[in-house]
Amino acid sequence: MFKIINREEMAEGTVILNEIEAPLIAKKARPGQFVILKANDTGERIPLTMADTNTEKGTITIIFMVVGKSTALFKTLLVGDAYQDVIGPLGKPTHLEKLGDVICVGGGTGIAVLHPITRGLKQAGNHVTAIIGSRNKDLLILEDKMRAASHELHVCTDDGSYGHKGFVTDVLKKILNEKKDQIKLVVGIGPVPMMKFVSLVTKEFNVKTLVSLNPIMIDGTGMCGGCRVSVGGKNKFACVDGPEFDGHAVDFDELSLRLQAYQEDERQCYDHFCKCQD
Amino acid sequence: MAKNEKIQRQQMPEQAPLVRKNNFNEVPKGYTAEMAIQEAKRCMQCKKPACVEGCPVGVDIPGFIKHVSNGDFTKAISKLWEKNSLPAVCGRVCPQENQCEGKCILGKKGEPVAIGNLERFVADYEREKQLATRPEKAEPTGKKVAVVGSGPAGLTVAGDLVLKGHDVTIYEAFHKPGGVLVYGIPEFRLPKEIVFSEVSGLEKMGVNVQLNTVVGRIVSIDELFEQGYEAVFIAVGAGLPTFLNIPGENLIGILSANEYLTRANLMKAYLFPKYDTPVVRGKKVITIGAGNVAMDAARTALRLGAETSTIVYRRSREEVPARQAEVHHAEQEGVKFHFLTGPTKFLGNDKGRVVGMEGLKMVLGEPDASGRRRPVPMKNSEFELECDLAIIAVGAGANPLLTQSTEGLSLNKWGYIIADPETGKTSKKGVWAGGDIVTGSATVILAMGAGRQAADSIHQYLSWGW
Ligand SMILES: Cc1cc2nc3c(=O)[nH]c(=O)nc-3n(C[C@H](O)[C@H](O)[C@H](O)COP(=O)(O)OP(=O)(O)OC[C@H]3O[C@@H](n4cnc5c(N)ncnc54)[C@H](O)[C@@H]3O)c2cc1C
Ligand code: SF4
Ligand code: FES
Hints:
Helix content of chain B: 25-40%
CATH architecture of the largest domain in chain A: 3-Layer(aba) Sandwich
Strand order of the largest sheet of chain A: 12-11-10-9-13-14-17
Oligomer: heterodimer
Mean pLDDT of chain B: 94
Number of strands of chain A: 17
Shape of chain B: globular
Strand content of chain A: 25-35%
CATH topology of the largest domain in chain A: Rossmann fold
Shape of chain A: globular
Mean pLDDT of chain A: 93
Distance between the termini of chain B: 55 Å
CATH class of the largest domain in chain A: Alpha Beta
Number of helices of chain A: 9
CATH superfamily of the largest domain in chain B: FAD/NAD(P)-binding domain
Radius of gyration of chain B: 23 Å
Bound molecules: flavin-adenine dinucleotide, iron/sulfur cluster, FE2/S2 (inorganic) cluster
CATH superfamily of the largest domain in chain A: Nucleotide-binding domain of ferredoxin-NADP reductase (FNR) module
């Protein structure tokens, strides 16, 4: 059992933070890696990239958006409750090295995944510009942490309720226009359409781009192939070859479709869950 | 004619095909004690029993059958345990027709003794009654052994070494132990309760089972040695799905058999939405391949509501690698077989879902490296097959996760671990390997056999050195 020792609600309760006791995972995990969690006996295995680890306390932190049955179930777990299974660290860690000027772009809960990478890139000696965005001010998460993890932070909201009005890609384009030859790397993490458009923008400027993919997974060890994504026309297993890939080579449209494989079932399961909760 | 030959082989009572294709309960119901005794009486008690040669682990078949014919099922199980620690499993899943029963001399003229069915009966009887005494555990040696993977190879090594007094820990990547026995082979063929009862037996003997532990990620083999383990047995199976690499293969509704079966079995998608994991429920299902894995997938699809479930296989009926019983059961349940056909392309709709398969007819040409005649596509033989779920069951490869994170481990050109065929020793000191990660996808009994050999060798090493 993996006990929750700290829990926060963010973005009007649509996003949940859990700090979970998992000392062995905490010791091994590095930025960019993920865990698979299962709440109880009948639960589903859900992959989530770690937002933080604390080796002294022996904990890992995950941040998830409540989108379906399984995350709704995760939301019901409170401090003192436990996940039945947590498996990890899985996937390849981000390659953190000194490159010069880098830009980290995050959207939605992707910001949670981006945060340790941003911090790592800064620690590695890079000059880090961060751009984060959300639909509106209330849904924005981790602004303070992202500010601390970067040298320069830009915030965007779709409705203009806070920061720059518009998409993260607008700001990205502007910065690339100003100093494109200086930027050595862009890391983009967020919803699939956001990562797609970030990659399209950086492609124009020919700047290397990393994205972190979140396909449907089962085992997380390369055993089932359910997480396959087309990268440069080749099949890659996101759980072992990724989750990070070259944004210019990823087939985002295929990924979007594949993420919808179980949409109908999801709804059925969620309705079933809501009925049982009443 | 000897009197044995007059008794008919006892037919295994089974759920009727039209009933069972709608449930996940086990298909064969098992012999009654009377039937087992009758069947055991058919055994000729040959002086030089060919059946024993046919069994990869050399079970004393006439020996255990003699006890069954005397109605002494407790002595029978002890006899089985001497060579086989999982008889309830092997009795159900061994390809008996190529092994023990294939060699039985009664089979020359009529039907062989139902060795598998008897083995299963004896093991089930004991599991229910718990009358036999398990072998005594030796004094603790204080030596720690790590077993990586909890499939049949790992379970066998753990059982053997804990008996010898060693301190054994099994590390398993999944949240449940048992390997393919749990995530691959469906409930209707091997009830999971049997596997869990074997594992809890091991735990009672003192084996420590650590689940959710992906060795190579959370801990490396070298770190296991640093933690005080003196020997490591690697039994991680052949967990890498093979795809066809043809156009359209990433459409929704095309799954590797590993994914399909793991969802259905391990995650219990057949009980969705009571269990949270879904699986694609096709109405028109095709399964590519004709091994045990393919039969399991095609039959699972029927149970999940398929109107048609079709096997597409590029060779002919004669080359089908699955157990005879599985093919027979599949046909009874209504699985269709398209032999000498191979897929070339999958077709999808605008939602990215599979709607069909394009294929070619084949003829058999010259024998290939495996000795089987190679299928050659026929010109102008294109055809289309409608489907809303396609399961790819064309074999598995060596999963590189552990092997590539372990230094000093020699691999062959396909990525399998090179291990001494007599002892299971690898190129790395203190490390043994066995089962599918050495041989490639094989059988439960071969994995167990490799486990037994490695356990003997590990015990020798812990007693006297490498
Ligand atoms: C669907 C299906 C049906 C089959 N039917 C039959 C049959 O009827 N008869 C028959 O004889 N054989 C059958 N087989 C083959 C048989 O199951 C295998 O040959 C046998 O299980 C191999 O045993 P093993 O111990 O080598 O590995 P496995 O059973 O594959 O077990 C390996 C275990 O190691 C774990 N593991 C992998 N990597 C790691 C890691 N890095 N760290 C920790 N743990 C890890 C895996 O999760 C798994 O639990 C079938 C196989 C399948 C897939
Ligand atoms: S272990 Fe398998 S091959 Fe050996 S006797 Fe039993 S069923 Fe036959
Ligand atoms: S999740 Fe199964 S191979 Fe990646």
